[in-house]
């Protein structure tokens, strides 16, 4: 039984996979078992059939009333439970960059303790069934706005599942993020709430300012000035909401040298002044 690397085997005509993409998968009775090395996080939305998925230390049986969210890095093999049946599903792959962007946008950045959990079982309902029906690899390759559509579909299912499963699903999503930070990210993250300027953080990264900005945007998918401001203002909001500190107590701790500038930036982001918090 050969080992297939996915999603690489689905990109024979491309140099590299995209951040988001859909693949229509069909498995027939003449291929009862398949071994897979998974290099991207993936939704497996089952439509027809049932299967047993074997991981390193566990296994899961799923039918067409269930779907799976599978963690990248899994080495697994799949076995059809109905030997004379056809197995059909929609595979929805997403990169860690897109996951990180989503979590930063919609969640509280909690730290997960779910180390090494290979999958999350999703119980299909009417909404999910309709969502699955809307996925088609052809739609997202032949459409002029394929990338924009895929991003909307990705956020749609993620938000729906966050609402459906709450904190267990959020914890699982957080567990999908690689724990090993690059030296660049380690330096940036350790100075999020300092009052260092971009030039000074760039210096710590042994980069010119222009190189730092370019590298930062590639890593975080957003300009460094906006990213740092958003992170620092969010931290300020959390400190103020705790009720023990005033704006005058914290503005320097979140990277501002001037209380007035801090207050203006805070109100622009949250719509209320620090004193109203």
Q: What's the SSE blueprint?
A:
Elements: E1 3-6, E2 20-27, E3 33-38, E4 41-48, E5 51-54, E6 59-62, E7 66-70, E8 75-80, E9 87-94, H1 96-106, E10 119-123, H2 126-134, H3 139-142, H4 146-165, H5 167-175, H6 183-190, H7 198-204, H8 209-220, H9 224-241, H10 247-250, H11 259-270
Characterise the protein shown here.
This protein is an alpha+beta fold. It folds into two domains: about 170 residues, Sandwich (Jelly Rolls), CATH 2.60.120.810; about 90 residues, Arc Repressor Mutant, subunit A. Helices cover about 40% and strands about 20% of the residues. The protein is built from eleven helices and ten strands. A five-stranded mixed beta sheet has the order 1-3-8-5-6, with no helix packed on it. The chain has a five-stranded antiparallel beta sheet with strand order 2-9-4-7-10. Strand 5 and strand 6 form a beta hairpin. Helix 9 crosses helix 11. It is elongated, with a radius of gyration of 22 Å. The model has no long low-confidence stretch (mean pLDDT about 80).
- By CATH reckoning, the class of the largest domain would read Mainly Beta
Number of helices: 11
Q: Separation of termini?
A: 61 Å
Provide the β-strand percentage band.
Answer: 15-25%
The CATH architecture of the largest domain: Sandwich
Oligomer: single chain
What's the gyration radius in Å? 22 Å
Q: What would you call the shape? A: elongated
Mean pLDDT: 80
Q: What name does the CATH topology of the largest domain carry?
A: Jelly Rolls
User: Could you give the order of strands across the largest sheet?
Assistant: 1-3-8-5-6
- Helix vs. strand class: alpha+beta
Domains (count): 2
Taking pLDDT < 50 over at least 5 consecutive residues as the criterion, the unreliable ranges are none
Q: What fraction, in percent, of the residue positions are helical?
A: 40-55%
SSE order, as H and E?
Answer: EEEEEEEEEHEHHHHHHHHHH
Main beta sheet: 5 strands, mixed
Q: Using DSSP, what is the number of strands?
A: 10
Protein name: Helix-turn-helix transcriptional regulator
GO molecular function: DNA-binding transcription factor activity; sequence-specific DNA binding
Domain HTH araC/xylS-type: 182-277
Pfam family, one: ExsA_N
């Amino acid at each position: 039984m050969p080992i297939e690397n996915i999603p690489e085997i689905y990109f024979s005509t491309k140099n590299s996979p995209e951040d988001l993409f859909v693949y229509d998968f069909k498995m027939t009775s003449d291929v009862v078992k398949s071994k897979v090395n998974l290099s991207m996080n993936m939704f497996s939305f089952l439509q027809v059939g049932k299967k047993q998925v074997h991981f390193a230390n566990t296994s899961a049986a799923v039918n067409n009333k269930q779907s799976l969210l599978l963690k990248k890095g899994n080495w697994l093999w799949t076995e059809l439970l109905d030997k004379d049946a056809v197995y059909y599903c929609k595979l929805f792959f997403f990169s860690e960059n897109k996951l990180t962007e989503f979590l930063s946008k919609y969640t509280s950045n909690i730290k997960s303790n779910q180390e090494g959990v290979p999958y999350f079982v999703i119980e299909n309902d009417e909404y999910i069934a309709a969502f699955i029906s809307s996925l088609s690899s052809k739609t997202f390759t032949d459409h002029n706005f394929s990338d924009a559509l895929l991003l909307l579909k990705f956020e749609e299912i993620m938000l729906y599942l966050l609402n459906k499963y709450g904190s267990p699903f959020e914890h699982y999503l957080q567990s999908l993020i690689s724990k090993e930070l690059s030296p660049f990210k380690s330096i940036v993250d350790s100075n999020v709430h300092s009052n260092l300027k971009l030039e000074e953080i760039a210096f710590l990264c042994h980069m010119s300012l222009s190189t730092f900005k370019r590298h930062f945007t590639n890593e975080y998918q957003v300009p460094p000035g906006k990213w740092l401001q958003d992170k620092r203002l969010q931290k300020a909001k959390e400190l103020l909401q705790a009720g023990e500190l005033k704006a005058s107590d914290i503005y320097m701790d979140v990277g501002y040298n001037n209380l007035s500038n801090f207050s203006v930036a805070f109100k622009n982001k949250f719509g209320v002044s620090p004193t109203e918090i």
